[in-house]
Specification:
Layout lengths: L1 H6 L4 E9 L7 E9 L2 E10 L2 E7 L1 H14 L1 E8 L2 E7 L5 E7 L28 H6 L13 H16 L10 E6 L5 H13 L4 E7 L2 H14 L4 E5 L13 E8 L2 H11 L4 E7 L2 H6 L6 H4 L2 H22 L2 E7 L10 E7 L13 H8 L4 H6 L2
Parallel strand pairs: 8-9, 8-11, 9-10, 11-12
Antiparallel strand pairs: 1-2, 1-5, 2-3, 3-4, 5-6, 6-7, 12-14, 13-14
Helix pairs in contact: 4-5
């Protein structure tokens, strides 16, 4: 309380509260100082599902709310101010660890922006040229965002925000090993490497895998050009990929149909700490699904397709829970950009108990809709 009270001042940049203890409710809270009628208040931004809520508080009220959040709802707090960083971690048993890093020097004119409606601050900042963003046509060589590609800029930053939320699960002394299945043109793979290596200063080794030979060759050339020595791309199929025994994080974005299932199974077998998947083209369940009660909906092709996609991803999320992962289904990007906007994010929290399979209701639902997915079959092996 003493350290946090000192942080809540006009020298604060922001407080980020993350790593929720429960699946329901808010998954992240941001706090920053704002000037309201000549007085310093603290604006609380709560991210809950796909919604964001804002509320302003006086210092004492904000302090008590933060302490309550850390006592009951969240495991991590990181505060950044002109004086340095304050990090608080709460273990499963309730033990609190507080680390404080003092700022070595203070830059003139670098104080926090306390305007009530400020421009959003992105992880990849406007004005700082990033090589892959320049080559992608998102930025100019001077670091300005190309107006026509602003949606792409926001999408990449949104992706990195999802990564930042689970960063504590990946922090360790040895290099973090990440595999991106179905990496395609790999702009998000390059963003991932840039985030870990350049922005966070972490040792990371990333492998990109895709079926297209020409794409892989181009990605390897770019990685060499940027000096990303621990970023490598290979041609291959997700279902038959071999050569590693342990992976910290698996990413699969828009891998078609059952390719997502094979990637998830690989991740579970490797006991990956984090799994990110944005599924695509869920045809398998569409061919199987049948239910007399739901027939008024299923008789329409478009509605059947969407229902099949939701059931497929619901099964995947629940199977990950059964395998010992805390799983969230999040909105990746706006529907106007692509209809494939569901992100399944799974973080390993506990070992799945032998003989004590978590009851999720998948079997009953599968029987009701007459479906049996590839992932269900793979997880039974």
């Amino acid at each position: 309380m003493e350290k946090l009270s000192a942080v809540l001042s006009d020298r604060l940049y922001q407080v980020i509260i993350s790593n929720p203890r429960k699946k329901e409710g808010a998954f992240k809270i941001k706090i920053r100082p704002v000037m309201v009628k000549g007085r310093i208040c603290f604006q609380e931004t709560i991210s809950k599902g796909t919604q964001v809520f804002h509320e302003n508080h006086e210092k004492d009220e904000m302090l008590l709310k933060i302490l309550s959040y850390m006592e009951t709802d969240f495991k991590q707090l990181e505060a950044e101010s002109m004086d340095g960083k304050l990090i608080a971690l709460v273990s499963k048993k309730g033990k609190v660890t507080v680390k404080q890093h003092k700022s070595k020097e203070e830059k003139a004119g670098d104080g926090p922006d306390m305007s009530h409606n400020r421009v959003k601050k992105y992880i990849l900042e406007e004005g700082t040229a990033v090589p892959f963003l320049v080559d992608l046509g998102v930025q100019t060589k001077e670091g300005r965002i190309v107006r026509a590609r602003y949606d792409k800029f926001k999408q990449i930053n949104r992706y990195l925000e999802f990564i930042e939320d689970i960063l504590p699960s990946l922090e360790k002394e040895e290099p973090v090993h990440i595999i991106d299945f179905g990496c395609g043109k790999s702009y998000l793979t390059f963003a991932l490497y840039y985030y870990f290596h350049e922005l966070k200063g972490m040792e990371v080794c990333i492998t990109g895998l895709d079926l297209k030979k020409d794409v892989i060759e181009k990605c390897n050339l770019l990685a060499q050009q940027y000096g990303y020595r621990n970023l490598h791309f290979y041609q291959g199929d997700i279902s038959t990929f071999q050569g590693v025994e342990k992976v910290d994080m698996i990413v699969t974005l828009h891998a078609c149909d059952t390719a997502t299932d094979y990637a998830i199974k690989k991740a579970v077998d490797w006991n990956a700490k984090v799994i990110f998947t944005v599924p695509c083209c869920q045809h398998e369940v569409n061919r199987q699904i049948a239910n007399e009660v739901m027939e008024p909906i299923l008789k329409y092709g478009l509605l059947k397709e969407r229902m099949a996609a939701l059931i497929t991803d619901g099964i995947r999320a629940n199977l990950l829970e059964e395998a010992g992962y805390d799983t969230q289904v999040l909105e990746f990007i706006d529907m106007e950009h692509t209809p494939k906007n569901i992100l399944i994010r799974a973080v390993k929290r506990r070992a799945a108990e032998e003989g004590h399979k978590k009851e999720t209701g998948i079997d009953r639902m599968s029987e009701a809709f007459k479906v049996n997915t590839t992932l269900q079959k793979l997880m039974q092996e």
